[in-house]
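Re-run with default settings, no changes from the original entry. Doing this only to confirm the output is reproducible before filing.
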Amino acid sequence: MSIKPGQPAPQFTLVSSELKEVSLADFKGKKVVIHFFPMAFTSVCTTQLCTMRDNFGYYDGLNAQILGISVDSPFVLKKFKEENGYQFPLLSDFNKDVSKAYGAIYEEFVFGLKGVSKRAAFVLDEAQNVIYSEVLEVATDLPDFDAIAAIVK
């Protein structure tokens, strides 16, 4: 079951595409926009993160931090970030713990792949409580970027 607005966000520490540990607690005092995505280098995932990249300045001016999370390895995420010029951290949930904690995981995905992050978006307030939650069942759907922007504002 996914995390709903009003609940405290599950805390985590993951390895970034820069091979550094990043904890959710590092961003206390800022709003945090978390984007889960199934797999790097796929067309819809690229569209999802490029939309956030192209609107990055909007969020930066609002004391908000964007984080991208997938079950890809940090090495794959490093190449994905470099090729697309993302300005925000991409975090590897290779062990799938965070995707499970947020209720954003496909037990079974395409081609028989198991344990892949669902496309999902969460917005956390400055105290790290969930104020927006969207978990998509259909991997080709995109989050509601306008709703995310409105809640961050």
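The beta strands are 13-16, 21-23, 31-36, 64-70, 90-92, 105-108, 114-117, 120-124, 130-135. Residues 43-54 form the longest helix (12 residues).
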